[in-house]
Design goal:
The protein is mainly beta. The chain has one helix at residues 6-13, and strands spanning 17-22, 27-35, 41-50, 53-63, 68-73.
């Protein structure tokens, strides 16, 4: 199996639902619309989660790459 580069993983996540944890513990779930070389992300239809439960709907958000702890398929 070919080794995957980080940007290959991000390309595969485009237009798919992802779960993101930010520094400070905030978790967001949404559809990854785009990213750049700094790993800044745009999420659409974003939900703010608390303990895995929906806390509120945020819509479209821009996340700074340096605030992201992990990105996972949702």
């Amino acid at each position: 199996m070919a080794e995957k580069r980080p940007f290959d993983v991000l390309n595969n996540a485009l237009n798919n639902n992802v779960l993101i944890r930010l520094k400070g513990g905030m978790e967001l779930r949404g559809t990854m619309a785009s990213y750049d070389v700094h790993m800044n992300l745009v999420l659409e239809n974003t939900d703010h989660l608390e303990n895995g439960e929906l806390k509120r709907k945020l819509g479209t958000v821009l996340l700074r790459g340096d605030s992201i702890v992990f990105i996972s398929p949702a």
